[in-house]
Amino acid sequence: MFSRFFSRVGLLATPILALVVAGCSKADMNVRQSTLDPKGPVAQVQYDVFMDTVWLVVVLFALVGGLLVYAVIKFRARPGDENAPRIEEGHGNPLVEIGLITASIGALVIIAIPTLSAIWYDDDVPDAAVPTSKLAAWYPRVEGAKENYAKVVEEQVLEIDVIGKQWWFRFEYPQFGLTNDNKRSVPNEFVIPKGKAVRINLRSEDVIHSFWIPKIAGKVDLMPGRKNHMWIQGDEVGHYYGQCAEFCGDSHAYMLFRVEVVEPAEFAKWVQKQKTDSQPVAAGSKAETGKALFGTKTCVMCHNINGNPMAAGAFAPDLTHVASRKSLAGAWLDNRDPKAQLALEQKDKNTESSVAVDNAVLKANLIKWIGSSGVATGADGKPTKDVKPGNRMHFYKMFNVAGLNETQQKFTDHELDCLAEYLLTLK
Asked: Does residue 67 sit in helix, strand or coil?
């Protein structure tokens, strides 16, 4: 009887267990936004707490499930039991009940200790990480006659201000003068040095957002009118994927961002690159026509381009180095060749590996984004799907500007081509 019962259970359980084991392979966890593949100390601590909880639940499941199976077998109905005297029901055993309550409290304590420890650890940069992460320890303050940052901040760790907007993120590096006030902010893609703790200051300029880089750190909310913070550290060089994790409007699902973890020396080069202006365009070229269109089509009302006196907007993403970015439209459009990117990830078995920007893909994305963003029809007059529904580009009625309440920009194919050629020069 028992052998037949367990054989039937085994027949049912074996394929289910096989599916579970197959789905828990390390390769399946190594996807672009996996919390089960930590690449930094904050993500590792959070992963450890998660696994502590999983193992505790597994033990509890085995105990409760085992007792249930035992009771089903031990007290199952047998032939002739219908004539057996009925057992009078009792009211429980106080010792058993007290024991179960005590065990439940103990299980909660087991989870509470690592959880509280992780909360304190994740709150701010640990004192142990400061000596090797402060700017003076890895980034020369003065190089020749050039001062990279003020002396007053050399004992501080790197700080990045993250500002959430519908539906994109703006990143600022106030210690290096890369701020929106200085017309040198960084939209949707930010860079951090490998192995260095970074303090993140979180702000929102409209609604509630949530900042989340699954492989580097868990999510923390950006609250309107309130300052929030966290810290992160990337321990492996690579291209990481993040996104808003709090519903914030029409295009919440399209509100992504990217993180580049680079060697400290590469980070210093990147900072200096962000401080440079755009280069002049060739006379008589499509790019020159596009530059003029950028002003006449009122793109300059919202966007900033250092080196272009007309473009000094502070509302929309800074475009000074747009052609060097691996994504567009709030990181929704990827500017890399998709086949080459997938091949590299499969070759390296690493989703953080990244190919360079492909100019042909970037140009196509620019035309798609500018031409269809927020308008009901494309340049050919046919209905088109918005790249990011509800976005403010072309929708001047959202700005409450007198005379522009119902205005929408229209572009011809030639105008889109020229605008794209100009933006391609902004390396």
From this structure: helix
Reported as a single tens digit per residue, the pLDDT across 180-223 is: 988 899 999 999 999 999 999 999 998 999 999 999 999 999 99
**Whole-angstrom distance, CA of residue 356 vs CA of residue 211:** 26
78-88 average pLDDT score:
70
Pair of tokens at residue 20: 């579970």
Query: SS3 of 173, please?
Result: strand
**Cβ atoms 215, 235 nearer than 8 A:** no
Q: Which CATH class is domain 135-274?
A: mainly beta
Give the domain ranges of the chain: 26-73+94-123, 135-274, 286-424
**Starting at the edge strand that comes first in sequence, how are the strands of the sheet with 186-187 ordered?**
186-187, 168-172, 158-165, 198-204, 228-232
Residue 335 φ then ψ, to 5°: -90, 10
Domain 286-424 has CATH 1.10.760: yes
Mean model confidence pLDDT for the chain: 86
Asked if 157 contacts 125 with a C-beta cutoff of 8 angstroms, the reply is yes
Least confident of 15-19, 75-79, 116-120, 230-234: 15-19
- CA-based nearest residue to 328, from 304, 363, 280: 363
The H or E element spanning position 232 is strand 228-232
Contact 9, 2 (CB under 8 A): no
The residue behind tokens 């190089």 is 143
What is the C-alpha separation between 275 and 148, in angstroms, rounded?
A: 11
Average pLDDT over residues 37-41: 93
d(CA 182, CA 191) in angstroms, rounded, equals 19
More confident residue, 161 or 380: 161
Distance CA 418, CA 413 (A): 9
Q: Are 375 and 408 in contact (CB under 8 A)?
A: yes
